[in-house]
């Protein structure tokens, strides 16, 4: 029994096992300690520079500093485009662990509508340069800012930035001329300088804002800041200040621009006014306008669709893109061309029976006065706007010479120096028709061109420019919108200015001007009612542009037509005759005769500029147009 118990316990063996286990335990501890010490040596010594740099990056952050956009003033120092302080919501995707969860949380906090949320997500995923913040929302209100501040710890990568936001005090009247800024889109990101536009969320989209983007934007800066574990800035370590954009002083006169918009009185149309000697654009209005401030922060879908679907096309810039037949406004230009080409003399007369016929053609091309004006010379042809005289003149000149002479005044070309988006419209020619329709040019089409109809199309800016060149007696000065960039004046003589129009007999200018003056002051002048009480000498020409063509024996009756099928009213003028200070073109869509509905608007613009009077009462202008409509015929 005793031997059996002794075999159950072996102290020597247990001691041996204990020693082995203790050795293995100590060995394991030593190995692990060695590994840990080795790892520490590797991290602290071998990889010191690597992890020191990473630590510094986590602690120190470089932030871009966007420049302040330059301000825009009118010629008198009135502010047209300013920068107002606002708060923007941005998101840096590289600092966000779960983008969808973060966006869900933001939508909940900001109480976004489904439409706003959709735009929110699109902007969040828009292609962006690495570590550049994406603009999610602009112009946050106080409640939104407070909610975001309280929940900041739950929103890594989301920041509320204090920035300056573009604002247009006269958005409606200046929308088309100034244009507007908007959020930078994915396509623009690909082409913009990443250094210059670091931290910038807005860029000029249209108008002056687009053309002078390089001038207005400035140069971005940067700052180096120290942050804590939550990304909150503790202190600024270094800074390179941004270079603000240059201020821009325009040639526009805010009061004259406002007057032009009021004169149109809600009608579709355009008014352009230019200083002939310098090319300064005093007013360039397209009506109706729109609130350009909506586009700065991002217009909502419903509002944008309403603007797009508006039958009056408020987004369409009629002043530089609207194309209209010039009608009889081009008769002074054609008269001068006829003199230059030797086709007519100032005193040569024709007999007008009320129509014109091409040789061996039975069709009658009618004068607006169906029984005719009798004997007509050049000056009277302008004053009474005789069509027959210009049918004859156009036929004798032919389309080739007509095209050459009218192109010299800028028709069919882009004429502005810094007018973004301008259309060249159309000065038709034999080659143009062959290329466009693969058809020959017909003599009857030349007659239509001779009274500013047919294929011929002009923009209001083109017509005002041609009028300024006429007022300058052939001297070309390119129209411009910028008067001063920073402290530097924009020169009058600009690159790519067309050649001056030189004629052999300077007296011809006076004879053409005499006919234009009779339009307003002659007893037969088509706009004689407009000329009553003029305190200066003014030359002008009315025009009526057809919306559709009439048959040979059809008679135009505006009362029987839908409003949008009625003729457009046009008028061009400059004053004073002896020293022109202003040239004006007016187009009022579907308003009827230019001698009634457009002439008074041109007179009001000239009065305001030359006499420095208070803006005329719109109601008085309307009454004058209504009275003229019933007493004065003509185009």
From TrEMBL:
Active site residues per record: 328 (acyl-ester intermediate)
Pfam families recorded: PBP_dimer, Transpeptidase
Subcellular location: Cell inner membrane; Cell membrane; Membrane
Alphabetical UniProt keywords: Carboxypeptidase, Cell inner membrane, Cell membrane, Cell shape, Cell wall biogenesis/degradation, Hydrolase, Membrane, Peptidoglycan synthesis, Protease, Transmembrane, Transmembrane helix
GO cellular component: plasma membrane
TM helices/strands, residue ranges: 20-42
Catalysed reaction, written as an equation: Preferential cleavage: (Ac)2-L-Lys-D-Ala-|-D-Ala. Also transpeptidation of peptidyl-alanyl moieties that are N-acyl substituents of D-alanine
Enzyme Commission numbers on file: 3.4.16.4
Pathway membership: Cell wall biogenesis; peptidoglycan biosynthesis
InterPro entries: Beta-lactam/transpept (IPR050515), Beta-lactam/transpept-like (IPR012338), PBP_dimer (IPR005311), PBP_dimer_sf (IPR036138), PCN-bd_Tpept (IPR001460), Penicillin-binding_protein_2 (IPR017790)
Membrane topology: Single-pass membrane protein
Residue span, Penicillin-binding protein dimerisation domain: 65-237
GO terms for biological process, alphabetical: cell wall organization; peptidoglycan biosynthetic process; proteolysis; regulation of cell shape
Molecular functions (GO terms): penicillin binding; peptidoglycan L,D-transpeptidase activity; serine-type D-Ala-D-Ala carboxypeptidase activity
Job of this protein: Catalyzes cross-linking of the peptidoglycan cell wall.
Family: Belongs to the transpeptidase family. MrdA subfamily.
Listed PANTHER family: PEPTIDOGLYCAN D,D-TRANSPEPTIDASE (PTHR30627), PEPTIDOGLYCAN D,D-TRANSPEPTIDASE MRDA (PTHR30627:SF2)
HAMAP family according to UniProt: MrdA_transpept (MF_02081)
Name assigned to this protein: Peptidoglycan D,D-transpeptidase MrdA
